Amino acid sequence: MFDAMKTRTKRRHCLSIFDAAVAAVSPARFLPPNLPEPPETGRLIILAAGKAAGSMAAAAETHYLDVMKFPAERMLGLAAARHGYGVPLRVMEALEAGHPVPDLASIAAAERMLAIADTAEEGDLVLFLLSGGASANLVAPSGRITLDEKQKFTKALLRSGAPIEHMNAVRKHLSRIKGGRLAARVAPARLVTIALSDVPNDDLSTIGSGPTVPDVTTLEDARAILARFSVEAPASITEALLDPANETLKPNDSAFANAAALIAARPMDAFVAATEEALRLGYRVVNLGSDLEGEARAIAAQHAQAAFREAAVGGKVALLSGGELTVTIKGDGRGGPSQEYALALAIALAGAEGIVALAADTDGTDGGGGAPTDPAGAIIDPTTLARASELGIDAAAYLDRNDSTGFFAALGDLHACGPTLTNANDIRVILISD
What we know:
CATH class of the largest domain: Alpha Beta
Helix content: 25-40%
Number of strands: 12
Number of domains: 2
Strand order of the largest sheet: 3-2-1-4-5-6
Order of helices and strands: HHEHEEHEHHHHEHHEHEHEHEEHHHEE
Mean pLDDT: 96
Distance between the termini: 10 Å
CATH topology of the largest domain: Rossmann fold
Number of helices: 16
Shape: globular
CATH architecture of the largest domain: 3-Layer(aba) Sandwich
Strand content: 15-25%
């Protein structure tokens, strides 16, 4: 029998668990303890890129200017964030650029960052603050690749269903700033990279396509990825992937002689915080995988079966998962992996009593596409399919055309929290109670 009060409670609990995950990876929390000592005599050059660039830069400014009392006249830098994710800065320049598809501002941001990097001298400290999204926020195409070609190619990559590590392996070989090339521009200054991970296995060279760290992937790898995922490329990109000059910088390159890098926060931190909040709320937690990859609808089908098994056991249960899912787009609808997962899960659960679920992206925008005002994800409950039916909405048809946003917008079940100014993958919560 449907219990409206328990359903409302579980919906609130889903949001509370998600909020706890986001708070755990706030730059104001994780960055200050990891910041290096400022230079004794040289300049402090702070460069930041990605969805969390603005908030990471602001936290760094507060630490050095207010806590360390570092003189503002010896500090400079640039933060390049996604449109809508920038924050006011006191000393550093702040720019906003395209994501997930680059735009003219992405090129301007990359060129300005390279220009600042070129001024670095021995005795300076260059602090690079990296987060997911930098691949699109900083674009410096190699060879004769045009912005229009880069945009169309990026859209094709995004639609292919290729995991982020494969997409970025390709991007690194088409750029004058990615794949360690920014590190070469700041040498011989000391370089410290601090990253907020949003990728599987916390691979530094994958985060934002690794502008300041070595890369082990090759031009041959990039070509193989395009073939594997049937991604068509214009002649300029095909030529670039055959040009040895576009090979990325490897671990033994002299550019890294005075460089260090660390990951200060990662998706696991968000996942642990979500787990702790679920336990605090009285749920028994089942870990479905903190670092999942795969097609959103396929993972949803698996998780529905797990939910049925746990529901049969009884009690209050929270099934949690993290990672970054993908969608192979075949229709003309709107919606990222979290919303597609939620819609596929609702269909698979078929209105099962006592189950409420939320799937959302910790950066505040599902899949990174669209505008910053777009939803982070969606929530479902036992009434989801019935309410859709009353509105004449065919859930399966919406899923077939990849229109999960349209489906949940009609029901009022989108989770639209706005930009969170951080980015640590997705959080999926399935709550079950008698």
